[in-house]
Amino acid sequence: MSIVVLEHVSKEYRLGDHMVRALDDVTLSFESGVFLAIAGPSGSGKSTLLNVIGCIDMPSSGRVVIAGHDISGQTPDQLASLRARTIGFVFQTFNLFPVLTAEENVEYPLLQMEELDKVDRRERVKEMLELVQLGKFAKHRPSQLSGGQRQRVAIARALVTRPELVLADEPTANLDHKTGEGILALMRDINRRYKTTFIFSTHDKKVIDAADRLVGIEDGTVRILGVRKEGQWAITNVARRAAATTDTEAAAPKR
Amino acid sequence: MLSFLERLIPVHRREQLEHAWFLARQDLMLASRNVFRQRRRTSVSLIAIIGGVAAMLLASGFFEWNYDTMREGAIRARIGHVQITREGFAEGGTADPLRYLMAETSEDRKLIEAFPQVDTLAPRLSFTGLISIGDSTTSFAGEGVDPEREKKASGALTILSGQDLSGIDANEITVGQGLADNLKLQVGQTVVLLANTGSGGINAIEVKVAGIFATITKAYDDFALRIPLKTSQRLLRVTGVHTWLVLLERTGQTDSFLDKLRPLLKTPGLSIVPWYETAAADFYNKTVSLFSKQVLVVKLMIAFIIVLSISNTMMTNVRERYGEIGTLMALGDTRAKVLRRFLAEGAVLGFAGGVIGSIVGVGAARFISWVGIPMPPPPGMANSFVAGIMVTPGLVFEAIFLSVTTAVLAGLYPAWKASRLNIVDALRHAR
User: Fold this and answer.
1) B109 and B209 part of one domain
2) Which residues of B touch A99 (CB under 8 A)?
3) Between A41 and B50, the higher pLDDT residue
4) Which of A158, A180, B111, B234 could crosslink A172 through cysteines, CB 3.0-4.6 Å?
5) B69-83, B195-209, B408-422, range with the lowest pLDDT
6) Which residues on B lie below 8 Å from A91 (Cβ)?
């Protein structure tokens, strides 16, 4: 089953006096469980694509279906609820709440889930902090943590609701090389163990190398689709306006 | 106890309530942390609120002191807390006082005096007549009183010269300051009192001026004289009294005392009037309603100034946290929740400012009262006085309520703005 389906999605917005076309007729679908990189130079539209998939931005036209929910026509509150239960976010700038400790930050998305009581929440938080190897730092505030540790807390926060999809916007861009690799390895490990779908935007070659699916985007259109099998990338160059999918069969090499 | 509650509230309702309480606690916890994290900005806002709250307390406390002094002065000088008379005395008593006489003592009187909250019961005989010295004659309003009991019932009456009445049968009077000035009376002089008797004739007696008094009500002092009860009964040739004046330990007990007393009295045709319904309290009641309106205007102005001085910092607070707001929303917080978060911050700020402001205000009020505020004689009153500031728990509660409301109000627009942010734009501000 495809967890993300985009059909003829375009996104335009006004920048000063002229309209910018950030996404231009993008048609894509990703299957559940992928570890997918959206790559492209800055301004290519990769952030917009990620925002649309994350339901924090609405397309100007086209159809978006996330985990079976068609998001067109949904109210802001319905989208908020969809995000709360289905999607986890990891940000380039970590975006932890400075007044909350590590465990409180991780607990935060659980607070609106009425079905969880205090004990459930505490268990899940503990489990998540152990998963990102920060059990000892539960009581630390973000300002007392290093960048890598903060991003680990953010990953724990994104995973704690057991979302079907985790979106990461350049998750390693603000980290040094070694820490970034550690974060990638952690995400990759979680992806393998829990079959959580990861979609991240990046322009870093090393990050792309960690992925098993690749969407190359330029000027708002999908240019490259890649599938990696046994360490080898099978790359498809997508013609303009052609339907694109990373599903294994469709993206099979056509050389 | 718990099982009783469990039966009272259905399970799903209880869970909803618990969850709402949980969310509210969460909001307040987060709000307090956020408010006190921004020390510098918070202290700027706090100072504005503290100043406003303290100013508000001082203004309303000053008026409260005046109300209190005026009320207690009137009650303890002559109105008492409760007046018990024959029915109709208040309306017809001035024209025909002798028709409304009642017994000086009775079962009922013993009953009243047995109440623990009753400080004293003072019988009074009211009448009018003429007072003469030499060639001068003028009218007076006289009150026959029991000097012993009046020591408590007329505590707020000041003897300016001479002495108070010495006994219930003494042949002497004390004269109000205005009346004494009018007749140029000196202490020790002898005057003639002339009045209608109970049998329809006219009687006169000679009495000595024992002292000159003043109350806080000039209109009263201009015509009043006080005379021992027995002497007045001799002058009028009657045996009864007009009023039992009941003085309680505290003014606040009046209503509960009335509720208990009314069903117990046996004598038919008695009228039981609390102090605030007497004609003499009219001036007090009108003054309070007039000044309360003025104080309200002052409070509104202060509230407006608080809103003006903190709304800017509240807007800055939102603007600096666009990134955080974007994150909140991306993680699934609804607009309503974001709105609530920021309103809660206003409430926390207002509450903290209200509490600290009240402490400052009460301290300042104590100090100012200790120094004293010299005041000119108010209209209708005889003497200048030194005012103080009286901050009651009610005023403190009101000030805190007002500061919370104003702070929430000042945060309304920024909070609304925060809740309407575009998530993508907001996230761009994240550091």
Assistant:
1) yes
2) 30, 33-34, 37
3) B50
4) A180
5) B69-83
6) 327, 427, 430
Interface contact B14, partner A, CB < 8 A:
no
Taking the CB of residue B92, how many other CB atoms lie within 10 A of it? Answer: 13
Q: Calculate ∠ Cα A246-A249-A250, nearest 5°.
A: 55
Residue ranges covered by each domain of chain A: 2-237
Residues B297 and B325 placed together within one structural domain of the fold: yes
A77–B335 CB contact, under 8 Å: yes
Side by side, which strands form the sheet with A18-31? A18-31, A2-15, A61-66, A69-70
* Residue percentage of chain B with pLDDT more than 90: 45
Q: Hey, of B423, B425, B431, which one would you mutate to test binding to chain A, going by the most A CBs within 10 A of its CB?
A: B423
* Average pLDDT value over all residues in chain B: 88
**Total beta-carbon pairs less than 8 A apart between chain A and chain B:** 64
Instruction: For residue A77, list chain B residues with Cβ-Cβ distance below 8 A.
Output: 334-336
| Contact residues on chain A for B15, CB-CB shorter than 8 A | 114
Does any domain span residue B115? Answer: yes
- Weakly modelled stretches of chain A, pLDDT under 50: 241-242, 248-255
Which residues in A lie closer than 8 A to residue B19 (C-beta atoms)?
114
- Residues from chain A that touch B14, judged by Cβ atoms under 8 A, are none
Cβ atoms within 10 Å, residue B61: 25
B34 to chain A: nearest residue by CA? A99
Name the residue in chain B with its Cα closest to that of A109: B331
Which band of pLDDT confidence, cut at 50, 70 and 90, is reported for residue B6? low
Task: For residue range B92-122, list pLDDT tens digits in order.
Answer: 777 777 788 888 888 888 888 888 888 888 8
Task: Extract the tokens encoding B161.
Answer: 């010269």
Name the CATH topology of A2-237: Rossmann fold (3.40.50)
Rg (alpha carbons) of chain B, rounded to whole number: 31
- Decide which of B213, B239, B268 is a domain's last residue: B268
Q: Give a yes or no: residue B7 inside a domain.
A: no
Q: B297 and B190 share a domain?
A: no
Look up residue B251 and give its two tokens.
């003014």
- CA Rg, chain A, in Å? 18
CA distance A192 to chain B (A): 24
What are the pLDDT digits (tens) for A186-237?
999 999 998 999 999 988 888 888 899 999 999 999 998 999 888 788 888 8
Tell whether B125 and B164 lie within a shared domain.
yes
Domain that holds residue B115: 88-268
The token duo for B118 is: 């009753």
Residues B171 and B222 in one domain: yes
How many domains in chain B?
Answer: 2
Helix (H) or strand (E) holding A213: strand A213-218
**Same domain, yes or no: B423 and B328:** yes
pLDDT at A247: 52
Q: Are residues B162 and B116 part of one domain?
A: yes
Question: Best of A89, A104, A105, A112 to disrupt the B interface by mutation (most B CBs within 10 Å)?
Answer: A112
B48 and B173, same domain (yes or no): no
Contact B34 A99 (CB under 8 A): yes
Question: CA distances (Å), B116 to each of B111, B119, B260, B266, B274, in order?
Answer: 11, 8, 12, 19, 18
Q: What digits encode the pLDDT tens for the residues B283-302?
A: 888 989 999 999 999 999 99
